[in-house]
Amino acid sequence: MNKICFIFIGLLLSVGAAHAYTIGTVFYSNAERATLVAARSGITQTAIYSVTGIIKRGAGKSVAWINGRAVTEVPHDPVIPTLVIGRDHVMIEGKPIRVGESLDILSGQRVLRLPEQAVRVKP
Predict the structure, then answer these.
(1) CB atoms within 10 A of CB 107
(2) Which helix (H) or strand (E) holds 48?
(3) Which DSSP string do the residues of 84-98 spell out, in sequence order?
(4) Element spanning 83, H or E
(5) Per residue in 13-62, pLDDT tens?
(6) Domain limits at 103?
(7) Are 31 and 82 in contact (CB under 8 A)?
(8) Quick check: is 68 in a domain?
């Protein structure tokens, strides 16, 4: 009888230990999750974002042109995660990208296609 109890307790402990080790989240950033969503839907996704224009409206939807597409903050775009449109820049993954600039979200490399002061914000 004692052997059966020890075997049963041993099995319970091993099952409990197996549940203690979980894999967790495989894709850590919003950009990586958006890449997966885009791949599943057939949309080609890149980690490089180029901003070519912004229209910031006081009332209504603001629009940013990112990678040749007009996008808005609402509704949420699965290809461009965590988008916030500012007056003279957009924030993607918490990183600002100015008009005329490209940013590789994964490496942090920036490319400014326009000379400094070439873009002016009108009040």
Answers:
(1) 9
(2) strand 48-55
(3) EE-SSEEEETTEEEE
(4) strand 83-85
(5) 665 555 555 565 565 566 666 666 666 766 555 678 889 999 988 887 88
(6) 2-112
(7) no
(8) yes
**Cα gap 122→55, rounded to integer Å:** 11
Predicted local distance difference test score (pLDDT) of residue 90: 93
Q: Backbone phi, then psi, for 119, in 5-degree steps?
A: -105, 125
Average pLDDT, the chain: 75
* Tokens, residue 75: 């509704």
Instruction: Give domain status of residue 122, yes or no.
Output: no
| C-beta contacts of 21-29 below 8 A and 24+ residues apart | 29/93
Which residues touch 34 (CB under 8 Å, ≥6 apart)? Answer: 45, 78, 79, 80, 81
12: phi then psi, degrees, rounded to nearest 5 = -60, -40
Question: What is the domain count for the chain?
Answer: 1
